């Protein structure tokens, strides 16, 4: 990260010096900016995103803490919002991985000193971010653009993330054990964490502004994807017509974006996105995999923490 730090403007370097720090699972440093733990380069790109992004009313912003179903949400949102332009058999998702079609604002786009030009991005612009609600640019908060959040059981999200990093050999990572990583997340220390703050920030916003923020759960999507596909279309202002319903379009989109279909598309089996293999974004796609990694006592500990953090919020885990 020292090379990355060197690239930062003086202002950001100075800011970093004054932020609380912790070690990440791979021994690199995390910084706490606006309540959220992140690597220095993403603190920097978040600030650039906050300062320079200009939201449009037609924008759709997909949000999540990593490993909560972002890739799935990207495929769904893209397919639903663009369905009059691209019938499924011509979907750009057949030839382009979801993360290239729907880039992350702070991870992919605002990483350079110079801001990206997003004016030519096809309308509606479907863009993604992992930053917490409290760090979204004012431009997004003040515009009529739409925000979709996907949340996932924090234990599954944790195990998904741990596997994602431990499987990525390219980075030469020396990861701590799953027990040590778990200890850290119980203290709120994880990329884009604490996870409860991330979820609660968007949850509260969705309660206060239901027309602007749609809050989805990975588990609900697994249980009834067609219901959630309809909710997304309604939320985007392009509800399915009776004709579409009769033709089975909702079912077709649900199947096209399903784990099995996406995982088996050639385009997602090969190639890389940043330093990760595209296939790493499709691991198991199940619920409750944490049971294969964590002792019941560990799960109980996290459940207690979550119970306390979520109490009175109107939602639970
Ligand atoms: P697992 O590691 O538990 O399998 P993200 O997209 O936010 O990085 O999250 C990745 C997680 O979502 C992984 O979970 C991945 O397998 C799962 N996933 C990816 N595409 C999916 C899909 N179409 N349906 C269901 N789960 C999916």
Short description:
This protein has 317 residues and is α/β, with parallel strands linked by helices. Helix content is 46%, strand content 11%.
Note down, in words, how this protein is organized.
- The chain is an alpha/beta fold.
- Helix content is 46%, strand content 11%.
- It contains 17 helices and nine strands.
- The strands form three sheets. The protein has a four-stranded parallel beta sheet with strand order 5-4-6-7, with helices on both faces. A three-stranded antiparallel beta sheet has the order 1-2-3, with helices on one face. It has a two-stranded antiparallel sheet with strand order 8-9.
- The chain starts with a helix and ends in a 7-residue tail after the last helix.
- The structure holds adenosine-3'-5'-diphosphate.
- Adenosine-3'-5'-diphosphate binds at residues 64, 66-72, 156, 160, 163, 257-259, 262, 281-285, 289.
- Adenosine-3'-5'-diphosphate is lined by residues 64, 66-72, 156, 160, 163, 257-259, 262, 281-285, 289.
Please report the total strand number as a whole number: 9
Mean pLDDT reading? 95
Q: What would you call the quaternary organization?
A: single chain
- How far apart the termini lie comes to 35 Å
Order of helices and strands: HHEEEHEHHHEHEHHHEHHHHHHEEH
Query: What is the percent of helical residues?
Result: 40-55%
Low-pLDDT regions: none
Question: Strands of the biggest beta sheet: in what spatial order?
Answer: 5-4-6-7
By DSSP (H or I, 4+ residues per run), the number of helices equals: 17
CA radius of gyration is: 19 Å
Shape: globular
Strand content: 5-15%
Secondary structure class reads alpha/beta
Biggest pleated-sheet summary: 4 strands, parallel
Ligand catalogue? adenosine-3'-5'-diphosphate
């Amino acid at each position: 990260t020292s090379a990355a730090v060197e690239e930062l403007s003086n202002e950001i370097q100075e800011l970093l010096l004054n932020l609380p720090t912790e070690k990440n699972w791979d021994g690199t440093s995390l910084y706490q900016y606006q309540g959220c733990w992140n690597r220095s380069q993403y603190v920097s790109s978040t600030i650039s995103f906050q300062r320079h992004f200009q939201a449009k009313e037609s924008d759709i912003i997909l949000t999540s803490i990593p490993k909560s179903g972002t890739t799935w949400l990207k495929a769904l949102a893209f397919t639903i919002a663009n369905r009059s332009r691209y019938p499924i058999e011509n979907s750009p998702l057949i030839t382009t991985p979801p993360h290239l079609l729907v880039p992350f604002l702070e991870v992919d786009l605002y990483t350079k000193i110079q801001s990206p030009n997003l004016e030519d991005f096809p309308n509606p612009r479907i863009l993604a971010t992992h930053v917490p609600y409290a760090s979204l640019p004012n431009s997004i908060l003040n515009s009529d653009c739409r925000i979709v959040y996907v949340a996932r059981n924090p234990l599954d999200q944790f195990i998904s993330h741990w596997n994602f990093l431990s499987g990525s050999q390219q980075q030469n990572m020396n990861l701590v054990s799953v027990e040590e990583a778990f200890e850290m997340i119980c203290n709120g220390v994880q990329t884009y964490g604490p996870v409860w703050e991330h979820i609660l920030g968007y949850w509260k916003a969705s309660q206060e502004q239901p027309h602007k923020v749609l809050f989805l759960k990975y588990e609900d999507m697994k249980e009834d994807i067609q219901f959630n596909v309809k909710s997304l279309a309604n939320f985007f202002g392009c509800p399915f017509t009776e004709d579409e319903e009769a033709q089975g379009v909702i079912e077709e989109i649900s199947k096209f974006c399903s784990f099995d279909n996406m995982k088996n598309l050639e385009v997602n089996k090969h190639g890389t996105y940043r330093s990760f293999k595209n296939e790493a974004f499709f691991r198991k796609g199940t619920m409750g995999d944490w049971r294969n990694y964590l002792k019941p006592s560990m799960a109980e500990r996290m459940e207690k923490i979550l119970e306390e953090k979520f109490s009175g919020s109107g939602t639970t885990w």
